[in-house]
Amino acid sequence: MPFEITNEYIQQIQQLIAEDNEDALLTLLEEVHYADIAEIIEEIEYSEAIYIIKLLESDVTSEIIAELDEDTRENILKGLSSKEIAEELSELDTDDAADIISELSDKQIKEVISHIEDEEHAKDIIELLRYDEDTAGGLMAKELVKVNENWNVLTCVKEMRAQAEEVSRVHSIYVVDDNNILKGRLSLKDLLTTSTKTAIKDVFIKKVDSVTVNDDAEDVAKIMQKYDLEAIPVVDELGRLVGRITIDDIVDVIKEEAEKDYQMAAGISQDVEADDTIWELTKARLPWLILALFGGFVSVSILGGFATAMIKYKELFFFTPLIAAMAGNVGVQSSAIILQGLANDSLKGSWWKRLIKEVSLSLLNGFVLAALLMSAGMFFLGFDIKVGLTVAISLVSVIIIASIIGTFVPIILDKRGIDPALATGPFITTSNDICGILIYFWIAKLILGF
Amino acid sequence: MPFEITNEYIQQIQQLIAEDNEDALLTLLEEVHYADIAEIIEEIEYSEAIYIIKLLESDVTSEIIAELDEDTRENILKGLSSKEIAEELSELDTDDAADIISELSDKQIKEVISHIEDEEHAKDIIELLRYDEDTAGGLMAKELVKVNENWNVLTCVKEMRAQAEEVSRVHSIYVVDDNNILKGRLSLKDLLTTSTKTAIKDVFIKKVDSVTVNDDAEDVAKIMQKYDLEAIPVVDELGRLVGRITIDDIVDVIKEEAEKDYQMAAGISQDVEADDTIWELTKARLPWLILALFGGFVSVSILGGFATAMIKYKELFFFTPLIAAMAGNVGVQSSAIILQGLANDSLKGSWWKRLIKEVSLSLLNGFVLAALLMSAGMFFLGFDIKVGLTVAISLVSVIIIASIIGTFVPIILDKRGIDPALATGPFITTSNDICGILIYFWIAKLILGF
Question: Has residue B193 been placed in a domain?
């Protein structure tokens, strides 16, 4: 069922553009969804993209522009006049229009706004520009269907028909009082099944979940997921209904959040994609690599401090990468599990219980790994029992310490209001590398006595 | 606005249960959302949970049970008879009911089904049990509003009112022909704004996206996101309308997918949570640690093979953890970026271009890091220029190779139909550790000639 964009299809479009065959292009693209045309735009040349945008009607091109990657959109908008941009924005819901216009310069924003013919629409967009993009205000749209509690169902249906023309998707009908204070909601289902003569006051549902304009976008996502909401009304500090957020915007929030956490864990500090420039990729990657390099210096110094042991026990040095790798892996596992628990608010029980659990888990894993190490080491690598025992004991200790660090560093960061995702990836790996090597050589010194 | 579950609140509930004060409990819980009661159930004792489930009406408890963690639900269901479970399932939409019943034993499934009074509902649940949970069929519900293209709007509205009673959320009205073949849809908005005398044939939208029962759940999620759909109809192989999937189920698919990728990257092979048993956590974590251990053995052997170099160049061995760590970090960064590109279908351009880009990026990052290493090494650690140069050249080479491995292993796995997420985390770190150490000593041997 989904439309497949083939190379032949794109070549056909490019051919038609080259021939300036407007009719054939319009016929070809007529049946294509705007999301697919947006994908085509990403694939073709800039001049071809502008040709298509100028060719199609603004009710389609506005959706295409909203769908594009930020970089591509920036380019396309440069090819349009302020008046043309205003026409596109007039077709869009206020939330999408505000998102796009916020990418322009202050000067151009003013120009574009002045060209939007519907004053109400322009006013709504300006209002939305006030809010931080990571808040409920930044996510909401002004388009909604609301009725006054003092109306009867008949007036209500009439008013709603007019409002529904403006709203692409009707989720709920919100009920307000004369001061625009949110009082409750009417469901569409009720509307289908209630007699038209009833008074709104008598039928509306008085309980309605809502969020406030300054609420955090992530919290809004959690509430909508928990209560399985497809739309939620947004009120200002005084309880007045100012907008509504729909689930499709929340899907984007959830995806972005997941991608951010994933990138953090992989040591990428900014939202980058494989097709970004080398410079953008370097900015996102290099800081973490420098951190790892300095961590590496610390391990060099530690090893240097134990240089005298090299004469008698050179095998010890062969095992440092193994010990460091195990410490890193265990730490990343522990921190990942805790981070997901923190994200889902599902961590229960006291610190003590968690500590005992982590230590038991590490002992179990540690003994299995140490036993494997000892047997493989003795049979295949043939090192002496004292060194083998040293490495095995160190391995168990390192695993315990690494899992404690991996578990509690995110918890402590979270308690202090710092994003615990910072503690994953390179940060945990590097600090556990260092701790692991230090513990290893301490234990070796104790047992072997160099 | 969201309800906060405090310890005092839970104690109050436990107190009322101990006093067997049903009326006070009912009053207390009356205003509480089922999702919140589900959270309370997770916090209290088993006997208390059963008390609450048996106390409340089944229209609430069914939603509570659907909301619970799988482990908690399993326990609660053990405390209920087959007849009681059937009552709960009768209240739920077919998709939720099928998900819950599929967790029971085959024998109990039969018993529970035989107690469901609404035969149609029971038949629908049995039908849904046929589908794999990771397919469109596994996600869909049977509840939907459909009308025949041969009706007029009047019949349609009448029929819809009856159907809407059964459907908790009306997203779209699907239009079918006499053979139940999906022909198109009617939007609710159209319903609000169209005269009731029109014939359905003349007003319905002939274009409707749909998926087939065996389509992959992830693909359904991608389609619904791309086309901004809140619900999508599901058809069988013959094009007959058999169900519909709503966006809230897709939100769960997206979240689970993101969590799975995150856990893979952290070296956790099963869906586990911080509060799972030590045994479950070990099963998820130990396999990756064993992989890392065997990788460690390989690096031990490599270092052992260069043991003779230790006499003259012991500093070389101090740098092995640093080189291994850098290789691991670079590999994880590269693979994470590629994996996200693969997941979003946003990778463009040829392999050649990508290779050139990765090498340029690595050269840039590598030179910065090598310069830092050289200056820090010479000024603070005071090692000789020949060793410093060896380490620096190795570092740049290792970064190049690690980023190439990190980039192309996921791409190759993906081409071969293997989940590329396998290639992140411990797998990439371990193989890059080994490659890194090998390259490092080869280059050292070339330059220093031991």
Answer: yes
Q: Is the minimum CB–CB distance between B369 and chain A shorter than 8 Å?
A: yes
A167 or B316: whose pLDDT is higher? B316
A376 vs B contacts (CB less than 8 Å):
297
Nearest-angstrom CA–CA distance, A347 and A354: 10
% of chain A beyond a pLDDT of 70:
96
Mean pLDDT of all residues in B388-397: 92
| Residue A269, in any domain of the structure | no
Tally of structural domains, chain A: 3
pLDDT at site B313: 85
pTM: 0.82
| B153 — pLDDT class (breaks 50, 70, 90) | confident
Element (H, E) at B366: helix B351-376
Does the distance separating the beta carbons of B263 and A161 come in below 8 Å?
Answer: no
Whether residue B123 is predicted with pLDDT greater than 60 in this model: the reply is yes
Gap between the Cα atoms of A338 and A407, Å rounded: 6
Residue B429 has pLDDT above 80, yes or no: yes
Most A CBs within 10 A among B188, B244, B259, B289, hence the mutation to make, goes to B289
Least confident of B107-116, B123-132, B266-275: B266-275
Q: Which residues touch A184 (CB under 8 Å, ≥6 apart)?
A: A149, A174, A175, A204, A205, A206, A207, A208
Do B230 and B282 have their domain in common? no
pLDDT digits (tens, 9 = 90+) for A89-106: 999 999 999 999 999 999
* A330 and A399 together in one domain: yes
Q: Does A289 touch chain B (CB under 8 A)?
A: yes
Return the amino acid letter for B404: I
Cross-chain residue pair A251–B247, CB shorter than 8 Å? yes
Q: Do B223 and A437 touch (CB under 8 A)?
A: no
Residue A3 to chain B, least CA–CA distance (Å):
10
CATH (domain of A24): 1.25.60.10
**Considering only B78-87, B137-146, B153-162, B278-287, which range has the smallest mean pLDDT?**
B153-162
Q: Is B62 on the interface with A (CB under 8 A)?
A: no
Partner residue facing A336 (CB), from B164, B268, B373: B268
Q: What are the DSSP calls for A300-346, one per residue?
A: HHHHHHTTTHHHH-HHHHHTHHHHHHHHHHHHHHHHHHHHHHHHTT-
Q: What is the mean pLDDT of residues A327-347?
A: 87
Chain A contacts in chain B segment 390-409 (CB below 8 A) = none
Tell me if B275 and A348 make a contact (CB, 8 A cut-off).
Answer: yes
Q: Which residue of chain A is at minimal alpha-carbon distance from B327?
A: A289
Cβ–Cβ contact A313 with B under 8 A: no
- Say if residues B253 and B217 touch (Cβ distance below 8 Å): yes
Q: How far is CA A172 from CA A201, A246, A247, A321, B336, in A?
A: 16, 10, 13, 59, 40
Q: What is the pLDDT of residue B168?
A: 63
β strands within A203-316, DSSP E: 211-212, 231-235, 241-246
User: B211 and chain A: CB distance < 8 Å anywhere?
Assistant: yes
Q: Is residue B214 part of a domain?
A: yes
Instruction: Name the residue range of residue B16's domain.
Output: 7-134
Question: Nearest residue of A to residue B39 by CA position?
Answer: A346
* Alpha helices in A45-145, H assignment, sequence order: 46-55, 58-67, 70-78, 82-91, 94-101, 106-115, 119-129, 136-139
Q: What are the two backbone dihedrals, phi and then psi, of residue A241, each rounded to the nearest 5 degrees?
A: -70, 120
CA separation for the pair B99, B94 (Å, rounded): 8
User: Tokens 């979270």, residue?
Assistant: A414
> Where a domain ends, among A200, A222, A256?
A256
